[in-house]
Amino acid sequence: MIYPTALVTGGSRGIGKAIVQQLFEQGYNVAINYFRSETCAVELAAALNKHSLGNKAIAICADVSNASQVEIMFEETKKHLGTVSLLVNNTGISQQKLFTDITEAEWDTMFAVNIKSMFLCCRQALTDMIHNKNGKIINISSMWGQVGASCEVHYSASKAGIIGMTKTGAKELGKRGITVNAVAPGFIDTDMTAALTETAKNAALGSIPMGRMGTPENVAKAVAFLAGEDAGYITGQVLAVDGGMSM
Ligand code: NAD
Fold this sequence. Notes:
Layout lengths: L4 E4 L5 H12 L3 E6 L3 H13 L6 E5 L5 H15 L2 E6 L14 H29 L2 E6 L3 H4 L5 H21 L4 E8 L5 H4 L3 H9 L9 H12 L10 E4 L6
Parallel strand pairs: 1-2, 1-4, 2-3, 4-5, 5-6, 6-7
Helix pairs in contact: 1-9, 3-4, 4-6
Bound molecules: nicotinamide-adenine-dinucleotide.
């Protein structure tokens, strides 16, 4: 049996971990990219492999904002799991700061990790995808890339850029048999939102029509749908997973 291979960036925890678990359960070989969380990534791969029906998970370290590390990550994935046919660009960082307090270095880091990383990973994945006329790319954007978040101009702008990149990719790559879509989570219960103040959390909760935070699994199910056959004719779209928050 041949298993398709997925690579999930920032896959050791939070939304990325839920995506890894969902894809593995659906029969993908999964490369779990991590940067600093080695233990989490290695333990996750071991736990998945223990109950595997034949597919494999591996943990791969790379700073996805670094071109040569990304290149090595794809080489290692191909060597151990085969060609990547599904790329999930999930890595992201956030920061709450006033517009006027954000430094140039903070702006550059935000864009390097949140969007340059996607360009670098897509560039690596596309060589084989174009050759095989088959591939799916799913980018994790954010509701804030669509509606803008106060005190997060660099985060919101980077997430809006991801939507532009997704639509461009869909237009350029459609005829090559490759779909490119984005998922825009709202307020999801992970380490990223745990860092917010109680006041910020309560304000966010108050503006969610469904009245609760989303789970990483809610986002993972949307990614799995876009990765699957049922979404074969969907490209260039941004799927909101936000309990109605962006309406
Ligand atoms: P998280 O902080 O738990 O996960 C982010 C992951 O990215 C971590 O595994 C981290 O190690 C990894 N990472 C950071 N810098 C990296 C680098 N240079 N190279 C490789 N990996 C790196 O946060 P999360 O909530 O799980 O976020 C996942 C994605 O979802 C992010 O893109 C985030 O912007 C997006 N998102 C989250 C929410 C939310 O409410 N939690 C809402 C909208 C969008």
